[in-house]
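[Meeting: bench + compute handoff]

Bench side (C.D.) handed over the final construct sequence. Compute side (W.E.) agreed to return the predicted structure before the next meeting so the bench team could plan truncations. Sequence as handed over:
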Amino acid sequence: MGGKTLKLGAGLVILWLISMLLIANNYRSTFTTKEQIYELDSALQGLRESLSLDAPSRIKRADVESLDLQLVYALRLQIEAHGQDYWFVPDTQQLFYTTDRYIEQTQIYLDNNINLLMLVEAMRTMRTKYQFEPEILQLYLKLATNVLDAIFSENDSNPAIYRELDDIYTFSETLPAQQAEDLQSALAQVSQVLSGYAQSQYILKKLMNHDVYAQVNAQRIAFNSLLTNYILMAGGITLLTLCLLVGLMAYSLRYSQPVKKTSKSLVTTPPRFEAVESVSENVEKMAMTELKDQTEIDFDKMLDSLSNDIESVCMLLEVFIEDHTGDAERIQQLLRDAPQDAQRKAHSLKGVGGNLAAMKLREVAGEVELAIKSGQQPSDSVMKELKLRLDRAIDESEQFLQSHQS
């Protein structure tokens, strides 16, 4: 009877360990995807804040907004690539569809703004070219004035502006060939920009209340609920296993014959539980050890998460270098004047560290964020470590880009 009880007990412990490993693996995958969705939400909110600025500020930030949009696209790819390798995760297809529509609409909006900036530069060039020809120069000044009036006027349309553009085109046909060609090219560019800007205003209203924000929030709730279910499942399985083990012990004690043997059984049983706990602790220690590496960025892990898509990795690294170079110094400056902005930067850096498989950078950025959130100043040693790890991660990213883009 004792031998069968031990075998059953060992079988229960093995089943419990297998269950815990499976749950832990799924929990880790789900947690990683949840963090990526949080980072996507942060990137979307940052882009939304930029789009809510006044028109001149939005237009000037068109290049920066393009980089922010690239980050959104890179995060969307990363979430999709990571989710393909795991089961029992919430359906993210609606999120991908909505995010793709958002990216397309935002790209159209940004392209129109970039065309406007190109027009401004072209008009400046033409004014410089014809600065000693007052009659031609006056035409370009009129063009610039009409563009500003059409874009920043409170009226949705102004027929007088377009009539004056037609008059300028008619007059251009009387000019010498080169002057006519320059002026008609500028008029064509003005027409394209005005048409695109009208489209941009419609798109901007849609972007400010886009479905992607609701989808991201729904996914955050779904993944948090799944993580909670994993914890409850692990607790339920552990409790059930303990109850079965206690039942086996009670059954063994009830039908065992000598009292001394029963006592011996009671004495020898606890070490088995201690051995199981020791194995569990060793598994946790081994898992923590695997996170440590000699370099800041685990490129193998990053490539694996993106299905070995070198192009996506390079794009993500370029966005990381562009957006986060000097973040440690900026956080140090913001700690005195704008602690909330410093906390957001630290949170963003923590998320990016996870996306890049730079776990040490992620940990130290999380320490900085937690300290600020608690109303404390991060220690000098933590800030120095943040700068060191960020600089090393940027250097490794640049080396990776050089080796693969060449």
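W.E. noted at the follow-up: Confidence is low (pLDDT under 50) at residues 259-281, 283-293. C.D. will use this when planning the next construct.
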